[in-house]
Design goal:
By secondary structure, the chain is of the alpha+beta class. The chain is built from 29 helices and 21 strands.
Length: about 850
């Protein structure tokens, strides 16, 4: 019965991934159609550049004189199909063929590909053992043991392939990494069993992630400043290894006008206000001073911090509240203002000369005050001391993850060791584990016990060994026993499917519901599998899909390493960097959580902003640090392409780059990556850009080089369509003394005049975008690059997305149900 079900699934998958518009089921190609349509077109239009002697682009079409050439050389005809459909071929300087003629040729090629897909046996592709990358390791030990210690943060960086860091072929195992695995195993197991190591209280001087002082004297508006906010705050990220009581000391700087009400200092932990204290500074009125000095003032907060990465912030709350009425703040102080009146203690001192000197000094002081910000109260720095009175104690979650039988310090029955090891191993190896496989770990426990170690210490030794096993460190999918069914394409096991699913959506191991369904062999049932996918997308752990897949596809993870030139872009700081990243991440999260259409990535009429980013974009009506959904009314913004994160990572430090931005669109939105540039291409004259010549003029001269023209013909118009955004994503209309020209024309002749019209064209090309996103997500889900045999699957998924209204869940379900995701090659396949 199981064999019948597997064969039925193979047949169903084959039909699903090869669906095409009436391609026919003929075992031979349409030779008459080729001879009448395709061959004459190639001879007339293509052979001058793509013949045996002049193989431009490495393509020789002279050898493809029969209809059988498509089956024998599919990559060449895939190239021809793309170039003709995008209008890139023939080149601009050659005679353009009639569009109807082009459509007849591309139609024949597409029908032939569809026919080949129907008559060719399905191939799910190769399966390679995949090492857990750093994110997967951290998430796996977190969910396995219930402790979030992030040991992989100390591992060497993972290599990337095809744009992602979970590709099996590039995830190597170095001697340094093996040493890190040994240390990580000890730390994770001992933290779960005994709790984090207790450290003596320490004093940390926290470096501000950002500290911005407003250079204004008179308050222009009311700022609801919080721990993730704008001026007058210091915030820092700090990993707390030991939970407990801490003391946070806040150091203040700056000054306030006389007559101001007490200021309030707030302490935020992870964006939540956990403490607030007022500070009333005594007036210091004298002949020279008319301010409240804050330099040297401190406040202390006692706070309980849990373990993990904590975002700490101290800030002046409502900076412009409580100022004297003449400052025009939102809520004026009710204290009487104090004015400076120069006096002399003795009448005899009031000589004309001394009065003149006093008047001169007073007027000079007034001028200095007029030039200096008088309301610049701010938090200068923070110190964190602790933990205090901490005791080493395991968490209930850690103990439950380790002990399957009752946890009692002292005597344990011998069978309890085996049961506990099995309890961890079944989850760690992500499959059922036999007693024979467990025997070496049980032997380690017994050896440690015989050496005088306690049961707990002995169990820790066994579990540490388990965490350096290849079965834990690698996602190994074992060959099925040789049978008639497994000799050909067949389904992976239920537990392997559960692991593929959990690492795709969560970057972590399967949870209890997935394991239970795999044990019962019911996970693959269509209704069950769909319900699990939807449950997993709604789970907070799906944030890993946003951060790992989205962060690498849209490249907002790369924001951490960009460094725009401070002289040219003085408004860029770490807080703006964080805001850019959060916008794109929250936007992606919204599409996943609300199951929106994937087409909203191109032109959504909303985004997520806080006050800082709204100011950067020139969007009114957004105040405070909290991100919120903001509807976009103007044409300047819409979709990921106009988000500052994308615009910044696709720019240079000193200027925009139409080439980088055009390449970004081709790579990530259109599935049409350009080839690498040839060697020896001269660089642009950076000193001339914006002064004696515009960037566009320099690029157009660059395109005149025949070696560069073919690729730049595709890239440059797309990049120039985004020139209204500077190198950190702010809107502009001028580049130096030159007006921005964001017009362009695509190789197929379609024109646009601004970024909004460019986005409209991309939405029109929704099939190209759907193919691009499908391909990227398939690579991420499978952990390998896509090959020729994967194209039928991609085409089939793209053709069915409209039936899902292009919803995000529809794309995920199609990938999960696809042949490469659920099946594997037979034992005899290469």
């Amino acid at each position: 019965m199981r064999t019948v079900l597997m064969l039925a699934l193979v047949a169903a998958a084959c039909l699903a991934v090869t669906a095409a518009p009436d391609p026919g089921t003929s075992p031979v190609p349409d030779r008459a159609g080729f001879d009448a349509t395709v061959r004459p077109f190639i001879e007339k239009t293509c052979l001058d550049c793509h013949n045996a002697k002049r193989q431009k682009g490495g393509i020789n079409l002279e050898q493809h004189g029969t209809a059988d050439a498509v089956a024998n050389h599919p990559d060449d005809f895939e190239h021809v199909l793309v170039k003709l459909k995008t209008g890139e071929m023939p080149p601009e300087d050659e005679e353009r063929p009639d569009q109807q003629e082009v459509e007849r040729v591309t139609g024949w090629i597409e029908r032939e590909f569809a026919r080949l897909e129907r008559v060719t046996p399905p191939d799910p592709g190769r399966v390679t053992a995949r090492r857990l990358n750093r994110t997967e390791y951290n998430n796996t030990v977190r969910d396995l043991f219930g402790v979030d210690v992030r040991p992989a943060d100390d591992f060497p960086q993972d290599d990337t392939g095809y744009g992602f860091d979970n590709i099996a072929d590039v995830l190597s195992l170095s001697p340094v990494l093996v040493e890190k695995y040994m240390a990580a195993a000890e730390k994770v197991v001992r933290t779960a069993m005994f709790g984090p190591e207790v450290e003596a209280p320490t004093l940390l001087r926290l470096k501000a992630t950002t500290a911005v002082v407003p250079p204004v004297r008179t308050p222009p508006s009311h700022y609801d400043v919080s721990g993730l906010s704008l001026p007058n705050a210091v915030h820092a990220s700090q990993r707390v290894t030991v939970p407990g009581q801490y003391l946070l000391r806040v150091f203040l700087n700056g000054r306030r006008p006389l007559g101001s009400a007490p200021i309030r200092i707030g302490l935020y932990v992870d964006g939540t206000l956990v403490g607030e204290q007022p500070l009333d500074v005594a007036a210091q009125a004298s002949f020279d001073e008319d301010v409240q000095e804050l330099d040297g003032k401190t406040l202390e907060f006692k706070v309980t911090l849990p373990a993990g990465e904590r975002w700490l912030a101290a800030t002046v709350l409502d900076l412009y509240d409580g100022l004297p009425a003449r400052y025009g703040g939102p809520r004026a102080s009710d204290r009487p203002e104090q004015h400076i009146v120069p006096t002399f203690r003795e009448p005899r001192d009031a000589t004309p000369e001394r009065i003149a000197q006093a008047r001169t000094a007073f007027e000079q002081r007034v001028r200095e005050r007029a030039e200096a910000p008088i309301n610049n109260a701010r938090v200068g720095r923070m110190e964190l001391a602790g933990p205090f009175n901490a005791q080493r104690q395991a968490s209930p979650e850690g103990l439950a993850a380790v002990y399957a039988c009752e946890h009692l310090h002292g005597g344990h029955q011998s069978w309890c060791g085996l049961r506990n090891i099995s309890h961890v191993a079944q989850r760690a190896f992500r499959r059922p584990v036999s007693r024979e496989e467990l025997a070496p770990y049980v032997a380690l426990l017994r050896k440690a016990r015989a050496g005088g170690e306690s049961f707990e210490e002995s169990l820790a030794v066994a579990l540490q060994a388990l965490l350096v096993s290849p079965d834990f460190l690698f996602r190994i999918e074992r060959e099925q026993p040789a049978t008639a069914a497994t000799a050909s394409t067949h389904a992976i096991s239920q537990h392997e499917l559960a692991a593929r699913l959990s690492y795709f959506l969560w970057s972590s191991l399967p949870d209890e519901p997935l394991r239970r369904l795999a044990d019962r062999r019911t996970l693959r049932q269509p209704g069950v599998l769909e319900a699990q996918v939807r449950r997993m997308l709604e789970d907070p752990r799906s944030r890993a899909l946003v951060e790992e897949f989205g962060g690498q596809w849209l490249q907002f993870r790369a924001l951490e390493s960009v460094a725009p030139d401070k002289d040219r872009f003085p408004t860029f700081d770490n807080y703006l960097r964080l805001s850019m990243r959060n916008e794109t991440m929250l936007f992606f999260e919204h599409i996943v959580a609300q199951d929106r259409s994937i087409l909203e990535f191109l032109d959504a009429r909303y985004t997520f902003l806080n006050e800082r980013l709204a100011q950067h974009y020139g969007v009114d009506g957004v105040s405070g640090p909290q991100f919120r959904r903001v509807d976009l009314t103007g044409p300047q913004r819409g979709g990921v392409l106009t988000q500052a994160s994308v615009l910044t990572v696709s720019s240079y430090a000193t200027r925009t780059s139409p080439v980088l931005r055009g390449k970004w669109i081709l790579d990530n939105l259109l599935d049409a990556p350009p080839p690498d540039p040839p060697a020896g291409v001269p660089a642009l004259d950076e000193t001339a850009v914006g002064t004696t010549v515009s960037l566009r003029q320099q690029m157009e001269a660059h395109r005149a080089n025949p070696t560069c023209a073919s690729c730049h013909r595709r890239m440059d118009p797309l990049g120039f369509g985004l020139e209204n955004y500077d190198a950190i994503g702010a809107w502009r209309t001028m580049e130096g003394k030159f007006a921005i020209d964001s017009t362009g024309a695509l190789p197929d002749g379609r024109q646009f005049h601004d970024p909004s019209e460019l986005r409209t064209i991309l939405v029109q090309d929704r099939q190209d975008f759907a193919r691009a996103l499908t391909s990227k997500m398939m690579i991420y889900a499978l952990g390998r690059g896509l090959e020729r045999y994967d194209r039928p699957t991609v085409r089939g998924i793209v053709s069915r997305l409209p039936s899902h209204d292009h919803r995000f869940s529809g794309l995920v379900l199609e990938i999960v149900n696809s042949l490469p995701f659920q099946m594997r090659r037979g034992a005899s396949a290469p």
